[in-house]
Automatic annotation (TrEMBL):
Gene3D superfamilies membership: Transferase(Phosphotransferase) domain 1
Cited InterPro entries: Kinase-like_dom_sf (IPR011009), Prot_kinase_dom (IPR000719), Tyr_kinase_AS (IPR008266), Ubiquitin-like_dom (IPR000626), Ubiquitin-like_domsf (IPR029071)
Protein name: Aurora kinase
Pfam families (UniProt xref): Pkinase
Amino acid sequence: QAGARASFGNPVLGPSAMAGSGAAAGLGAGADGAQAGDRAEPGARAVEAQAVIQYSLQRILKNADAGAAAVCPTGTTRHEAGNGAEANTLEVRWMATGNPVCSVAAAPKMRVSEVKDLVREQTGVPVEEQRIFKDGRLLSGGAAMAGSGKLALTLVRSVSDPRVTNLGHFRTSTNFEPLPEGAFTLVKPLASGLQGEVLHYRWRRAAAGEEIHECVAVKKLRSERLEVRGTEVDERTVHLEAWRKAPDAEDALTEIGILTYLAQQPDLPLYLLRMLGVFAEEHFTWLVTEFADGGDLFAVAAASRVVETNLRRYMWQLLQAEAYLHQHHIGHRDISLENLLLKGGVIRLMDFGMAVRSHSASGVPLRFFRPVGKDFYRAPEVYVPTAAKTRAVPPAAALPGTVAMCRAAGGYL
């Protein structure tokens, strides 16, 4: 039946031509399916070939049904949507070869995530492996499909191994501006740690054509702590092969890189600590941020009971900060009361030294293995055993089917 309708609907494109298109798609699969930094999944060529055949059949059957749709000269089919609004049929093609993937009926205000669902239904390519581009620009899943007429979309299929990670993804270079002489006046020390001291300074600088004096916080990082050359960047390798040179869990260059990136965002929420500058002197690197006059939430909670209304506000602000980081594929990994500052009663999430890239370029959630963050804030599901085997002795009174807490290696239950 398909062959008969093919001959009727399009005398040029018969079954043999369709098979040739499928073979062509298979030959181009290596270029289409693979993306820099990702590994192509075995069998991708077969999926592409199948997609081309399905696409060809769909086009043939549509042309055979006279009057069912009006095909524009551009190849974009336009018809009336169920709500009376005009809709487009999008032709999705592989980016590298231009071979067709499928056609998708797109309604007005349709989101990219919905287009990906339709592509998955027609081709079997999982949503998380789809990277869809329009005019060379990668489209995010929550964005709406804008424009009308010919909407040409291209697809790249990329598959990442979620266990392969890069701890140095956010690291910045060490080419910082020299510390301006006489611009900073020390007010008082604030804290100290492995990376260095945190101090309260008054910064005299020019802004908008006039001189201002601004209270800032300065984290003075020892320059030798910024040296990471020769260290392993794949966290799974660090976990499995302890003899390799592992970087410190607290990475100063990662923190500077993330804060630099965030400071460049025009929509940065108040709830993320803003970086004001980075400067270098002989033995230290100065990381300058806004000054939070209210201290950290740990001190607030230790001094007095936090009323419920304030607690709710703090939690809402924290969730806004986390949501923004997740939109930018940043996983903090060290959220704690000590890393939540208060400025004018509004929280500021800080300390990005343990942060990582949360997703690959194709949107695959990445897997990390080291126990980072503080022990008492770490979720049970991210516990990593310290030994391959452990001995657990259940209580003598325990009955079959009951749950018992048993002490294991490292003092955990």
